[in-house]
Write a structure and sequence with these properties.
Structural class: alpha+beta
Number of helices: 9
Helix content: 40-55%
CATH topology of one domain: Yope Regulator, Chain: A
CATH class of one domain: Alpha Beta
Largest sheet: 5 strands, antiparallel
Radius of gyration: 47 Å
Protein name: Actin-related protein 2/3 complex subunit 2B
Length: 370
Amino acid sequence: MAGGMACFERASPALKQILLKLYSAEKPMELDHHLHEFGSVEYHIQSSASDPYNTYLSISTPLLSHGILLSNGLPHSTIETVKGICSDVVEIVEPAREGYQLTLKLDFARIPHGKESMKIITEISTVQSVILSSQLKEILRNISSQDAPQGIYRPIKLVYHPREPFFVIKQPAKITVVFPMRFKENTDVIIATAFFQELMDVGSSKQWAKAPPCTWSPIPPPELRGEHLEDLSTNGGFATFDISSRHVEGKKLDKTVWSLLNFYAFVKNHVKCTRSFIQRRMRNRLESLVEVLRKGTREEDQHIKKVQGCRCIRKLVSFSKSKTVRRRCAFTNKIKRIRSRIKIHAFSRFRRRWLSIPKFSSVKKYKKLD
C-alpha cells in the first residue's frame, strides 16, 4: 500500500521497485500482485514463469473529468500519449483486463542492460502521471477556443485525489483554476493562510510578473456559484490561478500541468515542514529556558551551602562555648559537694536539739475508705 498523498515524483516508487525486481531476477518469477496508491489508483502486475519475458501491467485510475470519458475508458489523446512511452518495450493490450482502464504488455527482453534499463523502467513507472497529465493538457490547450457562449462558464471538476478535487473554468483568453483547501488541524489552517497571503504578495511583485497570478479568498469565488455544497465547504479557503496562453506554450505546458496536479501536495508539504520548524524552535527555546533555570538553581544552591557553612561554624563556636561553661559549672558543683562533706564537731547534737520538727498528734483520726 503506497502513501495517501500525491507525491512530487512522476514515477511511482513502489511500481518501479517491483518492475526492477522482476527485471533483475535470475530466474523467471510467478507474480500476481495488486498495488494501491493515493487511495484511488490500482496497479495489477502479473508475471508467469512460462512466459518469462512478458509482464502484464493493468492500471485503474480515476479520470480527472467524466466529461471526457470515451467508450474505451480513456480519451484518444491519452492512449496516443501512453503509446509514446518506450514503444519498443510497451504494447497496449486491447481490450484491457476487466475492472481496469488500461493494460500494458512489457517485453523485458527488449530492455538493454546497464544504466539504460533503469531509465526505461523509470519511464514505464510514470504511466499513471502520464494519463492524468494528458487529460489536463487537453483542457489547457483549448484556452483560446470559444466553445461556450459569452458570459457562461461551466466549471469542470477534476479529481486527482478523492478528497482533493479542483475546478477548471474556461474563460475568454484564460483558464481559471480553483483549489478548495482543506486541512485536518487548526494549526495547519493558520500556517496555510499565512502561506497564501505571502504567495499573493510575491506573485504581485515585478520579479514574478510572468508567473500565473494567484489570489486567495476565505469564501468561494463567483465562478463556483451553483456547485455542490460539499465541494465548497472548506476551512482553508480557495486558492485561484489564472492560466493564460503564454503559460502553455511549448515545454511550458508540461511544467504548468505538473505544477497544478501537485499543488495540493506542495502546500501540504510546506505546511508540514513549517509546523516541524516551529516545533523544533519551540523545543530549542524551551531547552534554553530550562538551562537558564537550572543555572539559577545551581547558583542559589551554592549560595545556600555557603550560608549554611557559616552557620555551622557559628554553631560550632557556640557549642564550644557552652561546653566550657558547663565544665565550669560542674567544677563549681564539685567543689560545693566537697565543702558540704566537711564535719563540724557537736553540730549533729545541735541539729537534733534545736532543728528537729516536733510531732503533733491529730485530734481527729481518719479512716481509710475501702
